[in-house]
Give the backbone structure.
Amino acid sequence: MPVILEAVQLTKQYQEYTALRQLSLSIDTGEIFCLLGQNGAGKTTTINLFLGFLEASEGKALINGIEVRPNSNATRQHIAYIPEVVQLYGNLSGIENLDFFSRLAGFTYSKQELAAFLQKAGLQQEANSKRLAAYSKGMRQKVAIAIALAKNATVIFMDEPTSGLDPRATAEFTAICKELAAAGKTIFMATHDIFNAVNLGSRIGIMKQGSLVHTVHTSGISATELQQLYLETI
Amino acid sequence: MYLLAFSNFIRSRSVLIAITLFLVTGVISLYIGSRFLQKQQAAVEAVTQLQQAQIERNVKNVPDQFGLLMYYLRFAYINKPDPLAALAIGQQDINNSIQYLTVRGLEGQRYDTGLFNPYNQLTGNLDLSFVILFLFPLLIIAFNFNVLSQEAEEGTWPLVRIQAGSAMRFIVQKLSIRLIVVLGLLLILLALAVVIVPVPLNSKLLMFSVTSVLYIVFWFAVSFLIIALRYSSAISALLLLSCWVLLCLLGPAMVNSYLTARYPVQEAYSTFLKQRDGYHTKWDADKDKTMEPFFKHYPQFSRYVWNSPKFNYMWYYAMQQAGDDEAAGDSKAMQNKLRQRQQLAEKFACWIAPMQAQLALTDIAGTGLQQQQQFLDSTAAFHESTKLHFYPRIFTDGAVSAENWAQHVPRYFKATAAMVPLFAMMPLLVFTLILGATGVVIFRRKGAAYTFQG
Amino acid sequence: MNEIKIIAGHFLKITFRSRMLVTIYAVWLLLVVFAAFTGYSTYTTQNTLRTQLQQQARQSWEANPDKHPHRMAHFGSFAFRLKHPLSMFDYGMESYTGNAVFLEAHKQNTVNFSEAGFSTGLLRFGEISLSVLVQLLLPLVLFFLGFHTVARQKENGTLKIVLSQGTGLGAVIWGNSLGLFVLSVLFLLPVAVAAFVQMMLQQQLPADGFVITRGLWLLLVCMGYLWVVSTVAICVSASSTGSRAALLKLLGIWLLMAIVLPKTLQAVGSAVYPAPGKFEFETAVEEDMLKIGDSHNPKDAHFARLKDSVLKAHHADSIQQLPFNYGGFQMREGERLSAEVYNQHLKGLYNTYTRQNAISNYAAFINPFIGVKNISMALSGTDFTAYRHFQNHAEAYRYQLAQTMNELQMEHISNTAPAKDAKPLSIGKEHWTAFPDFRYTHQSVQAITQQQLPAVAAIVIWFLFSFAFIYFTAASAKVL
């Protein structure tokens, strides 16, 4: 499998505080990579660097072999982003939001096509035309996934996607992620949910104070073992 | 705990910047005010000198014809501004505060304007009353709009609720801190006025201060009501600012437009025309036709001889008088209209606080239309008495040298006492109380739980 | 480009959905109707009244019987200032400038009866004209509608999703600015329609008013200004950490630009270039007048010399032998000299005013509000130069009147006084009708453009600067 995401000695330094230290990592197409770590360990910083919202102090982040800075716009062609709290436009319906974001990415879809993406993301059809202000957190997340689908993104970055979701919504979300991976999408996810990480991820990274301390394959580890490792690390 | 909250507020950078900006603007306004006073003083001195020099020169040039001499001589009547006018210039930069009149027809000269740069008048004066009426409300809004919503938006509200027992007391406390700061700012500016202008410490200044304090409290009441409605910060700011735009810009401007349309003063122009025609057509009319009404107006002069073979100035001044008499109806109608405008403005003012405060402040400082009206009326009396002093001398062609010219120095207008401000400020007080009480009721009804709206 | 269009459309879609816009727009329409109606009725009433008074004054002038021309010089005339049709759009300084002046020989009277002189003091709160709505209030509305655009998306993270779609921050700012500008044009539309209706309702527009040319320029300037306002709103929103900070910043900018600076700059202007008050001015004029002598005073030394030289030139021993009326000649000379002195002083005074105002004119480079205000007043014929133009006209007419009467006296009046009880010296009344009435003309568009060159340059620079502003904001604003 070809490498899609690569970090080379990626460092983010604020005046006296190092948010990310010498991160070197490469992720293959189709992987679901889960990043664990306490608040402030550097998970979100890593995502922001890949997204091009931050400029690296040292090192580089590459997507599909292209350096993110200064080519953020080019690299963003391939990615989608789902923040922890998906805030879209409350006065627009789900389908309208999807339409807007797709057009921004350069795709114009018919109403049926848009509805199909929403359905694929797991959203009930009757919700399509309701204003987003009335959506639950899980529903808004599904719209964000639909946005990623409609854009035909190859990499999806997710920042703590399961926090605040009820167990059923979490289960639905996990199922969709697996489908996406099966379809060849790469998912890069920051999370606190160890059990879900083991269940969902192909590989797991554990971060501490800006450094990636461990990288493990989920095939050889159980949730309990991972929890043990996590607690020891931090 | 109160002190802690106080220093927490006052230490915030934006609050400090705002206070500094207001202090600077306030001091600028005081300098603008005192410059206005200096200019007025310079005008008084200039007219005093001018009158003296003109009397001296003309008495020398025309020593033998009292009537001709009085054609030239002018006498000043001065509405000297109170030092407080520096704080509320009002209409005083537009209205003439010095009348410089001959004993000829009054209507042709009483409306002569001064020399002004109209652009200066258009932008208006940045005096202290402007700072208080226009800018202080904005400071109050900026201080208050998120007093409650910020706590909610930053998530501190539930904590505060548990710690602070009464939500109402907490809010009142927060507002009172801000009130103290704003009143402190006002006090500093007034104290600086006493030093810079200088304004004497008297009952007028006290009235001025009380009115300003009431006005500031009014805006706190408005803020409190909006806060009690518990909208988000942005919407609260929007609502408060809409109040400001409505009360300080749109309301008064619309009332003014209405007054102008409701009471148009065409009489001003017709007075102007009638006065000229009334006088000039008499040159071609039978002289008796001029003298008859004159003697009717002034029977005391009927014993003087006017139809002597020599050119007689009695006829000339009777023609001048005819101009005034024929324009008198229109002149009166015009003044009535101005009075009606003033009365209706006062009625509207009860409903629009900044208008009311503005009228009160200018009335206290003697720079409003009311005092200008008094001055114009009094000018007519001054003109009349000057005329009556000189008429017998003109009509008998008395000796110019017999007159004690040194006594003809400018005279000063004395305003009758200003209105009772506390009574006049009643509507403002009532509004403040109503707004405050409504705020309390709404606040109580909404309960302590913060519900986010909008 | 496509992205910008999408974002602009999206901004408009979202804004149209909010209930707030409906309320604001409804209030806006009410204000526009109010301002348009007030402007229309003021213009119509005042111009009808003034035209009528001008005619009335003319009638009484023509109704004069045969008389001595010097009596007519003192009978004098009036000049009433007619409003420019566009004064319905921008009242400018009209409320503060006088509207009528009495024109007579020997004396330059003040232009009296400004609306401000009749005001209760409420005028100090400002007026609501269509121009005030567009130039002062609309920016505030646009700031309200625009402050949260980028800032709120930044606060709740939507901006990150937008940017991860491959859109640059520049496109976001461009799109929102464009959207806000389109919105501002929607607000401008009823104003333009109202102004158009105001003009169309007039039976006739003055031919020298160039209403259409001026109106189109006004529209263009207003649109440029609204574009600048829109970009400022969005750029401030984009460079702020949150929507609250953006709102406060924008309000501060508005207050400073629209309220505080204009006042302060005029105060600075009059402090730097102090103008004399009325009596200082009169004293100075009188001093110079005394130097040239008094044409009414037979003992005056200057005029005694003049008489000698005239007699000498005509080889005459006494004025009775002169081929013209000497009194008329002497007064013509006196009028010429005194008008020269007075006009020189007045010019000096007005130049001082112009210098005071120049500070505001150049301030347009730091404050586009002042620039657009100045241009708008100039195009609407309601600024200081328009007033000065009127006063110059009136003075020229006054001078012409006095000198024509003096020349009539020279030509037709005998140097010999009539016998007692004989008919007094006079000329026929046909001379009165022969003298033309006062006619006011408006300034040419070219003259206005020249006067307003700094303001026009400033607005153009602001317009260009707005693009740089977008560029630099996009480059420097932080997304996180």
User: Anything to note?
Assistant: Chain B touches chain C through 87 residues (CB under 8 Å). The longest strand of chain B covers residues 75-78. Strands of chain B lie at 75-78, 98-101, 411-412. The CA atoms of residues 288 and 315 of chain B lie 9 Å apart.
